[in-house]
Write a structure and sequence with these properties.
Layout: H1 2-10, H2 14-23, H3 30-42, H4 47-64, H5 69-83, E1 102-107, H6 114-127, E2 132-137, H7 144-155, E3 158-160, H8 168-181, E4 186-191, H9 198-213, E5 220-226, H10 231-243, E6 248-252, H11 262-270, E7 274-278, E8 286-288, H12 291-299
Parallel strand pairs: 1-4, 1-5, 2-3, 2-4, 5-6, 6-7
Antiparallel strand pairs: 7-8
Helix pairs in contact: 1-12, 2-3, 2-5, 2-12, 3-4, 4-5, 5-12, 6-7, 8-9, 9-10, 10-11
The structure holds guanosine-5'-diphosphate.
Guanosine-5'-diphosphate binds next to helix 6.
């Protein structure tokens, strides 16, 4: 929590502070409510959730009459939390419940932080005593396999890789096979995310998924989104959700944006929880997403 707060305050807690300042005005006229709306939209909360939030705030502020800063904070906290769906199950599912390893596939557009997230996640799992195999199925980006292998060496996980430009599905297959043979606990598969055509992506990811599922059920499909890309991230999320069944979202680079609202928008868009957040480039900068801590950090 302390770290989340520090990282978010570096990005100015713009959303929470802005809202609190606006709602503290003596007269909440139409212009002010429009500013509230703009603040939420600018922070990437999304149109629908913004409208809902403003409507509920207006109603509750009216009932409240005079407002102390403490009351306003409490009210905003409750309403933001409601939008963040606090009762979502955010456990990253890495246990297969069978005698095969848990299989986690990591998908997303290149550059969002997929490989880094896979490495960080491996670190958490290894620290938890798990035996982890990494599958470098991002054969599109030349350095991706090296990068993943470096993470593997750093955290103590074996990396299965193929030739540059090789077939992602066959590497994923090899990784799962190795995981089974070695009695690994978890296999993490890093994939490529080219968005040039949807059919290309669909073919590739679909194939990886099919090949993996021939050997072991997929326990988790994590979609990695870069929080700094705003609405663009939502467009990506939609495309990926059409191609594979996303079970969880990882929002990276939350340390580099004042637009925390994307958490609300993307959960709403996909109906899937944000499970992890990336708060920096370092190995320890991956945290479980905790809605309460997040709102507290926003509100300062
Ligand atoms: P990929 O192409 O999706 O595999 O992306 P990479 O894992 O190579 O990450 C792209 C860049 O984003 C790298 O420079 C990472 O260090 C950086 N990055 C990844 N996650 C985070 C994060 O949570 N915060 C910050 N600030 N940078 C990140």
């Amino acid at each position: 929590l302390v770290r989340l707060r520090a990282r978010l305050s570096r990005s100015q807690n713009a959303l929470g502070k802005g809202l609190l300042t606006l709602l503290s005005r003596e007269h909440l006229d139409e212009d002010t409510w429009e500013e509230v709306e703009d603040t939420l939209l600018t922070a990437d909360v999304g149109v629908q959730p913004t409208q809902e939030l403003v409507e509920r705030l207006r109603e509750r502020v009216k009932v409240l009459g005079t407002r102390t800063p403490g009351e306003l904070r409490g009210l905003l906290r409750e309403e933001l939390l409601t939008l963040l769906v606090p009762d979502f199950d955010r456990t990253v599912n890495t246990e297969s419940g069978l005698d095969t390893p848990g299989i986690v596939m990591v998908v997303g557009v290149n550059g969002t932080g997929k490989t880094t997230t896979t490495g960080k996640l491996a670190r958490v799992l290894v620290a938890d005593g798990k035996n982890v195999v990494l599958g470098a199925a991002d054969t599109f980006r030349a350095a991706a396999a090296d990068q993943l292998q470096t993470w593997g060496e750093r955290v103590g996980a074996r990396t299965v890789r193929g030739p540059e430009g090789g077939d992602p599905a066959s590497i994923a297959f090899d990784a799962v096979k190795e995981g089974i043979q070695e009695g690994a606990d978890v296999v993490l598969i890093d994939t490529a995310g080219r968005l040039h055509t949807k059919t290309g992506l669909m073919d590739e990811l679909g194939k990886v998924k099919r090949v993996v599922e021939k050997h072991a059920p997929l326990d988790e499909v994590l979609l990695v989104l870069d929080a700094t890309t705003g609405q663009n991230g939502l467009v990506q999320a939609r495309v990926f959700a059409e191609v594979v069944d996303i079970t969880g979202i990882v929002l990276t680079k939350l340390d580099g944006t004042a637009k925390g609202g994307i958490v609300i928008a993307v959960q709403r868009e996909l109906g899937v929880p944000v499970k992890l957040v990336g708060l920096g480039e370092g190995a320890d900068d991956l945290a479980p997403f905790d809605p309460e801590a997040f709102v507290d950090a926003l509100l300062g």
